[in-house]
């Protein structure tokens, strides 16, 4: 399983224009070529994953709008199953998998989703077990590549479990700020350098409207050599 964290960020690493606000205004900086790049990347993966907060603030479709019949499966993890049932990804014709926990599972909602042609996976007792989830997606669904367009909390879980193989950032030349704003990675964070997740810069490309940056995960032996 190859997992890519893919995000549009400001210079200071913010994902939105403020706490609880949508990330959609950032896309106004991109031209059609930039948007095409994003959608073609979606067409090259098996699935795209976003968290509950993205569904609440952006209500996206998460489709590939530049290539026909190349839409990724939408995967929505939520430990409490508290998704709005009128969300676009739960009401359109696209394939969606909602992932929840044993404690959060609600049969009534799950049945509604199944009637709409959606799927529901229970993975973890009180927190979504992402390591187990990705293994299940690979072994039972045949998925090989997953694109994570998460907010700070989802990204934290992916990084904390050391699951992200690479990171692709489209960095806009703007400063947003805000001490309570969403950043690329939120969560608990690390207070010891030895615990941090290390990546290597493999691509840096200055575009007209943004800087494209790509990082790949350092293997354990490379981390040891770096120290």
Could you list some keywords that capture this structure?
DHFR-like_dom_sf, Dihydrofolate reductase family protein, alpha/beta, disordered C terminus, about 25% helix, 7 helices, Dihydrofolate Reductase, subunit A, about 230 residues, globular
Describe this structure in words.
It is a single chain. By secondary structure, this protein is α/β, with parallel strands linked by helices. It has one domain (2-226): Dihydrofolate Reductase, subunit A (3-Layer(aba) Sandwich), CATH 3.40.430.10. The chain is built from 7 helices and 9 strands, in the order E-H-E-H-E-H-E-H-E-H-E-H-E-E-E-H. It has helices spanning 32-43, 52-58, 88-91, 107-115, 130-141, 152-160, 220-226; strands spanning 2-9, 47-49, 73-77, 96-100, 119-122, 145-148, 166-171, 199-206, 211-217. Strands 5-4-3-2-6-1-7-9-8 form a 9-stranded mixed beta sheet, covered by helices on one side. Strand 8 (199-206) and strand 9 (211-217) form a beta hairpin. It starts with a strand and ends with a helix. The relative contact order is 0.21.
Query: Can you give the mean pLDDT?
Result: 94
* Terminal-residue CA separation: 28 Å
Question: How many structural domains are formed by the residues?
Answer: 1
The level of helicity is 25-40%
CATH class: Alpha Beta
CATH topology: Dihydrofolate Reductase, subunit A
Unreliable sequence segments: 221-227
Radius of gyration of CA atoms, rounded to a whole number: 17 Å
Oligomer: single chain
Largest sheet: 9 strands, mixed
The CATH architecture can be named as: 3-Layer(aba) Sandwich
Trace the largest sheet across and list its strands: 5-4-3-2-6-1-7-9-8
Keywords: NADP, Oxidoreductase
Protein name: Dihydrofolate reductase family protein
Pathway: Cofactor biosynthesis; riboflavin biosynthesis
Domain Bacterial bifunctional deaminase-reductase C-terminal: 2-197
């Amino acid at each position: 399983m190859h997992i890519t964290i893919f995000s549009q960020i400001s210079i200071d690493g913010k994902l939105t224009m403020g706490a609880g606000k949508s990330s959609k205004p950032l896309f106004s900086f991109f031209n059609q070529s930039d948007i095409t790049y994003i959608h073609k990347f979606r067409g090259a993966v098996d699935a795209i994953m976003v968290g509950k907060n993205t569904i609440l603030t952006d209500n996206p479709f998460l489709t590939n709008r530049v290539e026909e019949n190349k839409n990724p499966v939408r995967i929505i993890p939520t430990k409490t199953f508290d998704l709005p049932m009128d969300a676009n990804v739960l009401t359109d014709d696209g394939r969606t998998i909602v992932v929840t926990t044993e404690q959060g599972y609600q049969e009534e909602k799950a049945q509604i989703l199944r009637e709409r042609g959606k799927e529901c996976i229970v993975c973890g007792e009180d927190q979504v077990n992402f390591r187990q989830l990705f293994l299940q997606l690979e072994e039972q669904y045949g998925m090989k590549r997953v694109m994570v367009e998460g907010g700070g909390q989802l990204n934290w879980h992916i990084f904390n479990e050391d699951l992200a193989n690479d990171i692709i950032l489209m960095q806009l030349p703007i400063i947003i700020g805000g001490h309570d704003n969403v950043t690329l990675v939120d969560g608990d964070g690390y207070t010891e350098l030895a615990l941090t997740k290390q990546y290597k810069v493999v691509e840096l490309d200055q575009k007209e409207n943004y800087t494209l940056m790509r990082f790949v995960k350092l293997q354990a032996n490379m981390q040891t050599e770096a120290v």
